[in-house]
Amino acid sequence: MSILDHSWRSLGAVAALSLLAACGYRDYEPSEANASQTSSTYSSAATASDASLPMMPTGTGSVLVSPTGMTLYTYTKDTPGTSNCYGECAEYWPPAFADSMAQPTGRLSIVTRSDGRQQWAHDGMPLYTFIQDKKAGDMTGDNYNGEWHVVR
Which of 52, 57, 94, 121 is the most exposed place for a label (fewest CB within 10 A)? Predict the structure, then answer.
């Protein structure tokens, strides 16, 4: 690989990270247009087929995680039973989808999104992962913009 090829790749990576950072700090407002997004938009969303969303111990206490150990969050602009995170918001905060075999128990429930998909909820509040959490146990979205909170 030539130095020129390496420079272009580096520039592309910097541009992509800059775009992600710029978009990641937006305050997501749902709109009529993005509320009807199809489920294909959320390809990185977590899906759990049972109510075994475990608690994971961390240095700041236990948090609710997906079956793969990714931290789960709630969004203050949601209301019990209703998600307000669609479109670009759901690209950065993928919904924790539940499949048709999911059996909620205890404080876990399932809500139906406006696009018809089933999403896990805790105390009625829809659950999400965060795209900037890269490995199990990461909690980089906690208190993000004062609107996203880890489920403890």
Answer: 57
